[in-house]
Design goal:
This protein is an alpha/beta fold. The chain is built from 6 helices and 11 strands. The N and C termini lie far apart (60 Å).
Length: 262
């Protein structure tokens, strides 16, 4: 039995009343002595790393160690680590459990991953958890409930790093049908486009809804997160906050040296 954590912070991008957050609270209780929840008041899916800078952020206590914040998932992490829990910071931030997978291209827009990345900026290790499902069937929450506690104990005991976070996607199958785990990477191609839908309000003014179109059928790389889920495996990715590409930097240096005299 690995040592339990003293306290963990939970957040998400589906909102403080989301079913996945309740499942995450149950999972967290298996690995930590004290569980704090600081989550958005409403759904903030697609908010990525955004923070609220041009309007006030409100924070409302719902119960002991449970708060609703008017802003984004990243706002919640800042509010918790720098204010609510400042005197006793969390040992880790757990973000999720997201209702749906966060894989490949969609990771860039995910508020679930945005919260985890913001935790790194605040100097706290982080793990994001997402449960895939096949609509119209509901998410198989028993899968993440069954497999997440042992996985979290292993990851948080061995890798208390703040230069990367872990993204864990659980496949859309019952717990007993999970075929194992796979360390994998993101792949291009899961977002096939974006839709802009125009509507007219009651004052005859236009407004718009945005939505992404998804089609991952073209992703076939064996080491990709999409294929791991397709194979009914738990997909585990290690993601960095930094987005620089050393190979591109080297090529760019050669190009500029050739084109621009010193």
């Amino acid at each position: 039995m690995r040592e339990r954590l003293s306290r963990v912070l939970l957040t998400n991008d589906d909102g403080v009343d989301a079913e996945g957050l309740d499942h995450l609270a149950a999972i967290a209780a298996e690995v930590a002595d004290e569980v704090w929840i600081v989550a958005p008041e409403r759904d903030q899916s697609g908010s990525s790393h955004s923070v609220t800078l041009h309007e006030p952020v409100r924070c409302r206590q719902l119960a002991p160690r449970r708060y609703a914040v008017s802003g984004t998932p990243s706002d919640c992490v800042v509010m918790a680590t720098q204010h609510l829990m400042a005197s006793a910071p969390p040992d880790a931030v757990l973000s999720g459990v997201n209702r749906g997978a966060n894989v490949s291209d969609s990771v860039a827009y995910s508020g679930t991953l945005g919260a985890a990345m913001t935790a790194l900026v605040m100097g706290v290790p982080a793990v994001a958890l997402s449960q895939a499902f096949r609509s119209p069937a509901p998410p198989p929450w028993d899968t993440v409930r069954t497999h997440a506690p042992a996985l979290l104990r292993t990851l948080l005991a061995a890798h208390r790093r703040t230069d990367l976070c872990f993204s864990i996607n659980f496949p859309a199958v019952p717990p007993g049908s999970v075929a194992g785990r796979r360390v994998c990477r993101q792949a291009r191609g899961s977002i096939s486009g974006a839709r802009v839908e125009e509507r007219i309000d009651t004052r005859d003014k236009p407004y718009y809804w945005f939505a992404f179109s998804h089609d991952s059928s073209g992703i076939t790389a064996a080491d990709s997160d999409v294929v791991a889920l397709r194979d009914n495996r738990i997909a585990i990715s290690a993601l960095q906050l930094e987005r620089d590409d050393p190979r591109a930097e080297a090529d760019l240096g050669v190009l500029l040296d050739a084109e621009i005299p010193a």
